[in-house]
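During the reporting period the student researcher (J.K.) took over the structure-prediction task from the postdoctoral fellow and processed the backlog of single-chain submissions. One of the processed entries is reproduced below for the supervisory committee.
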Amino acid sequence: FGHVCKPPTPTSAAASPRCRGAAMSGTTPADPAAPSAASPGYHCTICLGAEGEVVQKGCCCRNDAGAVHLACLIEHAVFAAENRDEWTAWYTCTTCGSHFTGDTQMGMVEAWIQMAEALGDDDVLVTAKSSYAIALSDRGRLVEAKDTAVEVYEVTAALHGPEAKPTLITKGNLAVAYSRLEQYARSIEMYRELLEVQKRLFGPEEAISLMTAEALACDMGSHGANAESAEILADVLATRKRVQGPDHPSCLGTMYNLAVTCMDDHQCEKAEPIMAELVPLAKRVMGEAHPNALKIAAKAAELQLQLGHLEEAAAMASRTIAKMKLSFAANDRYMAGLMITHGDALSRLGKHADAEAALREARTILETGVGPEAPVTLRSASTLGDVLVRAGRRDEGMALLKETHAIQVRVLGAEHWATLNTVARMKQWSDESSSSAP
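J.K. obtained the following structure tokens:
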């Protein structure tokens, strides 16, 4: 639901939406990825010096525009807070308006917490810790993010009251934390409670109420209630088009989530017309190279794979990965996810060497970026196992699938859909091996 801002008055706050599968808010571009050190010769945009470690901020700014000394960026945020009572500079680039990511994101929020502790201001400290929880989640430290979000919510409720806007935002962030841990029963319960209060206080068509309804629908879909999820998303989309306009970035995000829900429910024929409308719309509204437009294109490639259009899926994935490499960080998790789709399509086309290379690259990126036991990392491992079996390296592939399954049982649970999917694939390969035996 976004960062809670330390405002001039204690009841105001700001939030930016988060949507299923990809950030579609139009103000949150990049994805969690550690910014690399800037190339030699880059100058800090604040002090204009090139000495010391100059890094990229991890926002939408590129080249010199995105190069800073972290110490200069911290000094800039302190000045804005002390002299203009502006606090967004701790997590948002004042040039492009997008959020910091990676090491810059974490370095800024840690410095913000130190400043808040030195001030002895509980309100400032809780807003800084709210951003810290988001940074932890973006780096794949999901349990720590949830624990921090619980603390932030409890303190905010005590400071402002249970129905104050900052409290409602931190409750939404806590629900997101449970969702990212795939504890959907808990997140759905919290979203329902939150939505009831927001409808009563702000009205059902207020942006924050629509955001919560959409988050609720997405988690319901992830929890298996795809039909009800699609119904809620269709209602949210109709309201957004009427209230915000059909070209509003939030409408594009809802269209995306509706298409994903249909895909998850194996109703690709319903997702196809939505995606056919969404891809060119995103290019026109956001620009072809915008991170969210590229994420939409990535999901469109995945849809083509599910439809069995392998050549088209491989071609779309290849084009989109090439564009992502120009604007995304080298270890971006969304790009890695598309590499999984690309590798799967290539493998089914019989291009096993290219498929293996794509999947090994994706797995390396994900192990570094979100951890070796994150669900998407395990997906890359299981898909790689399939590729190895298809390539005739059955023992190696089955060993990887068994290893992945053991981790999924421990991390996700034996009844999780991803765990069951790995079991089904191992059975498929075993059955095929038995049927081909003399």
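The committee noted the following: The longest strand covers residues 55-56.
J.K. will present the remaining backlog at the next meeting.
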